[in-house]
Write a structure and sequence with these properties.
single chain; UDP-N-acetylmuramoyl-L-alanine:D-glutamate ligase; 2 domains; 22 helices; alpha/beta; nine-stranded mixed β-sheet; Indigoidine synthase fold; elongated
Length: 650
C-alpha cells in the first residue's frame, strides 16, 4: 500500500490500519520539511496492454531491444522481434519489449516503434544501466541491453525477462577487465533472466564464477546440469542447479521475490537439438572473429555485435538461423514460466498471505491500494459531566505543521464539537502527487478524502479515470463533501463513496442542483421510514458510481449499489457498467455495552469494508468486518485502537 500524505507524525488512521490487516506493503511519503523521493513515471511510458496485465497480476514477459538494434541485420531483426512476441502471446502471456525512443523509455513497443528501431533510421545507442542518463538527457533512441532491460523491468514490476544470451566475462579479461554489466545487474536487480546461457564468445568458466560472487542463483532447465553455450547445449561447464519443469522455475522465482533476496537469477535453457548448429564450426568462426576484432582495435560494447556479425558471415548464415531459433524457444519457455508464476501469485493474493512482489523501490511493486490524504494527529478529551458548557480552553495553533483535530466528547462518547488545523493539506500539490503517477496507475483501488485541494483532486481523478483505477472517496465533512463532484468529467472515476446522511444530501444537491434535499430524512427516524427514500436519494450518484456506503450513526449503515449484492465489488481495471438493478441493503449497528468514543468509528467501518473489497469478499462479509472494526473503535479511546490489529472476522 502506497501512502502519499501530509504529515510529521504518522496518524493511527483507518487507512494506516489497512496495512495491519495484511492488505499489502506500503510506502509512506511525508510532507514535512523533507523533499519527496521522486519516482520516474514521467520517463517511462507503459502500453495500455502491459499496464492492465501488470495491474491484474497476469503473466508478462520483458524483452530487450538490442537484439533489434544491434544483434541482427534488417529485416531479420524485425521479423524475429515480431515472431518472439507472437510466441509469447500464443503461450498465454503478454510480451513487453522495452526500448528508448526520443529519450523516453517505452515498455511494450508498438509495431511501428519496433520497425523504427529495427531500421535504425535515427541514431540509436546500445543502452545499459551506465548509458541511461546520457540517452535520456539527449532524448535519443536506445536499444536496451540485458542490464538496461532488467533495470526497467524491475521498476515497472515485470519479474521475468527473456533474451538469447547474456553478457559475461570476456576472454582475456585478466588484462582488459572487460566484464559485462549484465552480471552485476543480475546481482542487484530482482528479475529472472531466461537465456541460452552466455554467448560462446565469452569465457564461460569465469562468467559462472563471477555470477557466484554476485550471489546469482543459476540453474539449467533441462535433463541435466550442463550449462549451455548459446549455440550449443553444453559448454563443458555445469550449472549449480537443475530445474525439471517451468513450474519448478516459477516456484524458485516466487520464493526469491517473497524472500526479497534483492538479486536476480539466471535460468539457462539449452538450444533445441533440432536447431543446433555445428558447434565446432561456430567455435572456429568465433576465434577468427575475435582475432579480427583485436586487429581492428574493436573494444568494449562494440565487440559482441561485431563478432556475431562476423560469425554469421563466416558460417554462411547458420549462426543467425540458430540464433533466431533459440530466442523463439526461450520465449516459449519464458512465457510458460510467467504463466506458472502468475498462478502462484494469484494464489498468494487470494489466500491473503502476502503481497506478491518485493518492496516498491526495488521491483516496481504494485500492491493493491494507494492512499492519498492527510495524516492527522487526533487529540481527544472526554469528560464525565452530562454537558459541556465552557470551551475557552481550546486553542487553534496556526503555526502547527502537522494537521491536527481536537474532538470533544460527552460522557456517552458522542462528539459535541471539534476543531481542526488542516492547512498542510494545501501542500499536497499536483507536482508532488505526479511523482507517483506510475504507482497510482498500477494500484487496484485508490482512497482519497475531501481534505485535498481541488486542483490535486482533479489530477488524481483524471489519472484514475484514464487508467481505470476505481476511487474510494471519503467526504470528510459536509463543507467538503461535494468537492470532486464539481469537477466536470472527473467524477466518473469515483466507484465508491462513504458519506453520512448530511454529506450525501450535499453531494446529490451538487450533482442535480434543482433537486430538493430537505430535512425529510433524519437519523431520528426508524430505518423502515428512511430506507426507501434514502435509496432513491442515492440513484443520481449511481449514474457513475458503483457503490455507496451511507453511514447512519447509531442506526448502522446502508449499502446502495448497482447490481446484486452477490456481485463482486470492483477493483482495477474498473469501468462503470450501467446496470438497471439497484440494490439497497441495511446493516444494523453493532451492539456495544459501553461506548468510550465515537471518534474513529466511521473510519474503521470504511477500512474494514475496504479490506474486504481488496480480499475479494462478497458484500455481506465486507460489511460484517467493517462493523466489527467500528465496534472495536467504539470501545476504545484512540480513534483507531491497537486492538484492531488482532481483529478477525467472526
Amino acid at each position: 500500500m502506497l501512502m502519499i500524505m501530509t504529515m510529521n507524525i504518522a496518524r493511527g488512521s483507518c487507512f494506516h490500519r489497512l496495512a495491519r490487516w495484511g492488505i499489502g506493503k506500503r510506502q509512506v511519503i511525508g510532507l514535512d520539511s523533507r523533499a519527496f523521493h521522486g519516482m520516474n513515471g514521467s520517463m517511462i511510458e507503459i502500453s495500455d496492454v502491459v499496464t492492465q496485465a501488470i495491474k491484474n497480476n497476469e503473466p508478462v514477459v520483458a524483452l530487450e531491444s538490442t537484439i533489434i538494434t544491434h544483434g541482427m541485420p534488417y529485416p531479420a531483426n524485425l521479423e524475429t522481434a515480431l515472431k518472439v512476441e507472437n510466441v509469447i502471446k500464443a503461450k498465454g502471456a503478454v510480451p513487453a519489449t522495452i526500448g528508448i525512443i526520443k529519450g523516453r523509455v517505452h515498455v511494450g513497443l508498438t509495431a511501428d516503434q519496433l520497425e523504427l528501431l529495427a531500421t535504425m533510421r535515427e541514431p540509436c545507442l546500445k543502452t545499459s544501466r551506465r548509458d541511461l542518463p546520457y540517452v535520456l538527457s539527449k532524448k535519443i533512441n536506445g536499444g536496451t541491453t540485458v542490464s538496461g532491460t532488467m533495470l526497467v523491468a524491475a521498476k515497472v514490476g515485470i519479474p521475468i525477462f527473456v533474451t538469447g544470451g547474456i553478457g559475461g566475462v570476456h576472454r582475456g579479461a585478466e588484462e582488459s577487465f572487460d566484464i559485462s554489466a549484465d552480471l552485476t545487474e543480475l546481482g542487484r536487480t530482482p528479475v529472472a533472466v531466461v537465456s541460452s546461457g552466455v554467448k560462446s564468445i565469452l569465457d564461460i568458466g569465469k562468467t559462472l564464477e563471477y555470477l557466484e560472487t554476485q550471489g546469482v542463483c543459476v540453474a539449467t532447465l533441462g535433463s541435466n546440469n550442463d550449462f549451455p553455450a548459446f549455440f550449443t547445449p553444453s559448454s563443458g561447464f555445469q550449472a549449480p542447479y537443475r530445474l525439471e519443469t517451468t513450474t519448478d522455475a516459477a516456484r524458485m522465482i516466487h520464493q526469491s521475490l517473497a524472500f526479497d533476496t534483492g538479486s536476480g537469477m539466471l535460468i539457462a535453457v539449452p538450444i533445441p537439438e533440432s536447431s543446433q548448429a555445428d558447434g565446432e564450426t561456430i567455435e572456429r568462426a568465433i576465434r577468427a572473429a575475435l582475432t579480427l576484432a583485436d586487429q581492428q582495435n574493436i573494444r568494449g560494447r562494440d565487440v559482441t555485435p561485431f563478432v556475431l556479425s562476423q560469425v554469421n558471415r563466416l558460417t554462411s548464415g547458420a549462426s543467425l538461423t540458430a540464433n533466431r531459433a533459440l530466442i523463439e524457444h526461450n520465449a516459449a519457455i519464458g512465457a510458460a514460466i510467467a504463466v506458472d508464476l502468475a498462478r502462484l501469485r494469484q494464489s498468494t493474493i487470494s489466500t491473503g498471505n502476502s503481497c506478491s512482489t518485493p518492496p516498491l523501490q526495488k521491483s516496481g511493486d504494485h500492491c493493491p491500494t494507494v492512499v492519498i490524504g492527510g495524516s492527522i494527529v487526533d487529540l481527544v478529551a472526554a469528560v464525565q459531566e452530562d454537558s459541556i458548557q465552557d470551551s475557552r480552553g481550546i486553542f487553534r495553533l496556526a503555526s502547527a505543521s502537522t494537521a491536527s483535530y481536537t474532538v470533544i466528547l460527552d460522557n456517552k462518547g458522542d462528539c459535541q464539537f471539534g476543531i481542526g488545523d488542516l492547512k498542510i493539506h494545501s501542500q499536497l500539490t499536483v507536482d508532488k502527487v505526479r511523482q507517483y503517477e506510475e504507482d497510482i496507475a498500477k494500484c487496484r483501488l485508490l482512497i482519497m478524502d475531501g481534505n485535498i485541494e481541488l486542483t490535486t483532486m482533479e489530477y488524481i481523478l483524471d489519472l484514475c479515470r484514464s487508467t481505470r483505477v476505481p476511487v474510494w472517496y471519503e467526504p470528510t465533512d459536509t463543507k467538503k463533501a461535494a468537492k470532486p463532484f464539481t469537477i466536470v468529467g472527473c467524477r466518473s472515476a469515483i466507484a465508491y463513496t462513504s458519506p453520512n446522511l448530511s454529506e450525501l444530501k450535499k453531494i446529490v444537491e451538487t450533482i442535480q442542483p434543482g433537486l430538493s434535499c430537505k430535512n425529510d430524512l433524519n437519523l431520528n427516524q426508524t430505518i423502515e421510514e428512511i430506507q426507501d427514500p434514502l435509496t432513491k436519494l442515492c440513484i443520481p450518484l449511481l449514474d457513475t458510481a458503483q457503490c455507496i456506503m451511507v453511514t447512519l450513526g447509531k442506526l448502522g449503515m446502508m449499502i446502495v449499489r448497482r447490481g446484486a449484492k452477490a456481485d463482486r465489488l470492483p477493483v482495477a481495471p474498473w469501468q462503470h457498467q450501467p446496470n438497471d438493478e439497484i440494490t439497497a441493503t441495511y446493516y444494523s449497528a453493532p451492539t456495544v455495552d459501553h461506548i468510550v468514543s465515537v471518534s474513529g468509528a466511521g473510519d474503521c467501518l470504511a477500512a474494514g469494508f475496504i479490506t474486504g473489497i481488496i480480499n475479494g469478499w462478497e458484500q455481506d462479509k465486507c460489511a460484517a468486518f467493517g462493523l466489527q472494526a467500528a465496534a472495536c473503535s467504539l470501545r476504545h479511546s484512540p480513534a483507531v485502537p491497537a486492538a484492531l490489529s488482532n481483529l478477525q472476522l467472526c
